[in-house]
Fold these 3 entries.
Entry 1:
Amino acid sequence: MATAINWLVILLAILIVAATLLQVRGTGATLFGAAESSFRVRRGFERLLFRSTIVLAIIFAGLAVWHVRLQLPS
């Protein structure tokens, strides 16, 4: 069971990294964050990707805590 959880944690970590890298970066980013202030709304795939990244991170954190609890001696 611990091996399956290890593989699942690794898979979730890879998915989180991929989802984070696929997200669109803001336009007009300059040095020290002095970009123009513009308000953008996430729509469609961008919103789905943003929300799925959050869900994956929550599942990853819960699974990591559960994995550590399984490893502790009773």
Entry 2:
Amino acid sequence: MVMITGGAYQGKKAFAEKAVGITENDIADGRICSFEEAANAVCITDYHELVRRLGDRCIDFTNELCLRNSSVVIIMDEIGCGIVPMEKSERIWRENAGRCGCIIAAHSETVVRMVCGIPTAIKGAIL
């Protein structure tokens, strides 16, 4: 499993395409894909948005995904920085995204953080 994280618009998807060989046909978009598509995908982008859609089921889904699809590439934005949202639902979403990110990182051989298009290995080696 490979996790690619970082702020919005930092080149995460382009890095996955170049370093891992991901194509558009391999990608399940976490904003709109079905949960079954995500569970079987080669690559999931916007995993933080999938977490939003899953709600309370996100932790169980993420644990199951890590066990069932150990070769998946997961791309998610870092959303826990900045101003704490006023809306409780937004705070819960951020916390859930962080918890799911921790689960994914623990199961990943490689974790890469992208900043300004520059990859930094947090765990493992740059691909």
Entry 3:
Amino acid sequence: MSRYRTALDLRATGSVNIPQAPSWHRDAACLRVGHDLFFGPASDLPRELRETTEEKVAREARARAMCRGCPVRRNCHVYIHSFPIGDQVGIWADTDQDERRVERRKNQRKTAAARRRRAEGTAP
């Protein structure tokens, strides 16, 4: 008998936490679109199967255009920021991983500056 348990066994015992899509996701413009538009091909593919820079720019432009017209874009923005920065890959709410990292740093600086002002007694 294998020492590994199948996914079916784990689900039956309730030991697998399968995340559920948030309720707002059913209204997302991307709901029925393939993930490859937002995440691109796997990075471990052979070089000849990887997307070129031009292909990546075009793919991400299509994904961003879909995000800009999405009715739940704000929910998506909040949702992706609830994950650790290393887990925030792909295009979400018209932003990529680097843009979200910059935004997070700006927010951290604002928070730190507000704390300093409060500590110095100069907060509004």
